[in-house]
């Protein structure tokens, strides 16, 4: 009987040690998963703010999405480097910011793709620009962005815009 009691107590002790070890690593795993979801949510907000900025022609909001030394490539490979050149593109060359156009930037969420790896990630999305007056799709584009957490905030470090199909 004494062997049974000592064996049972040892079994309970070992079970407690194993469960304690597992719960510690489980907590780390849960923290990592929660961090990943938080990062994906913040990157998703970059995409939402991008569409808000194009719909409202809010250049300050648009520029707040880019890292200071970001690159922005569109069309036939024209690349803007840094905030000043990116601002120039949006304000002088982008049909979305053209005062004559009253476009609403729509985005099919199911075509968005976000990948995160530590403090870096990628973001792919489409823009369907709908003329507010005629309700006709005026333009369809896609964006592929490299993003990074810089000083605690997710920003676009490299953006390549291109065409896509509906």
Explain what the structure shows:
The protein has 166 residues and is an alpha+beta fold. It has one domain: Nuclear Transport Factor 2, Chain: A (Roll). Helices cover 43% and strands 36% of the residues. It has three helices and seven strands. It has helices at 2-56, 59-63, 82-92; strands at residues 66-74, 78-81, 103-106, 113-117, 120-131, 137-150, 153-163. Strands 1, 2, 3, 4, 5, 6 and 7 form a seven-stranded mixed β-sheet that branches. The longest helix has 55 residues, at 2-56.
Question: What's a quick, concise take on this entry?
Answer:
The chain has 166 residues and is of the alpha+beta class.
Could you tell me how far the N terminus lies from the C terminus, measured between alpha carbons in angstroms? 76 Å
Q: Per CATH, what is the topology?
A: Nuclear Transport Factor 2, Chain: A
Counting helices, strands and paired strands, the structural category is alpha+beta
The total domain count is 1
**What is the overall number of helices?**
3
Overall pLDDT metric? 86
Strand content: 35-45%
Determine and state the CATH class: Alpha Beta
CATH architecture: Roll
Oligomeric composition of the shown chains: single chain
Q: Name the helicity range.
A: 40-55%
* Biggest beta sheet attributes: 7 strands, mixed
Which runs of at least 5 residues are low in confidence (pLDDT < 50)?
A: 4-23
Shape: globular
Number of strands: 7
How many whole angstroms does the radius of gyration measure? 24 Å
Q: What letter string, H or E per element, gives the SSE order?
A: HHEEHEEEEE
């Amino acid at each position: 009987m004494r062997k049974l009691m000592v064996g049972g107590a040892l079994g309970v002790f070992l079970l407690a040690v194993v469960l304690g070890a597992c719960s510690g690593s489980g907590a780390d795993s849960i923290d990592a998963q929660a961090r990943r979801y938080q990062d994906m949510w913040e990157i998703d907000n970059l995409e939402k703010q991008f569409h808000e900025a194009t719909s409202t022609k809010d250049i300050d909001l648009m520029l707040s999405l880019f890292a200071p030394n970001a690159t922005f490539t569109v069309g036939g490979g024209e690349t803007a480097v840094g905030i000043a050149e990116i601002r120039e593109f949006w304000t002088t060359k982008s049909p979305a910011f053209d005062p004559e156009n009253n476009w609403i930037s729509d985005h099919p969420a199911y075509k968005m793709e976000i990948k995160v790896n530590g403090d870096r990630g990628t973001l792919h999305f489409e823009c369907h620009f709908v003329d507010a007056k005629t309700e006709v799709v005026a333009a369809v584009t896609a964006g592929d962005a490299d993003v990074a957490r810089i000083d605690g905030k997710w920003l676009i470090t490299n953006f390549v815009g291109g065409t896509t199909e509906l």
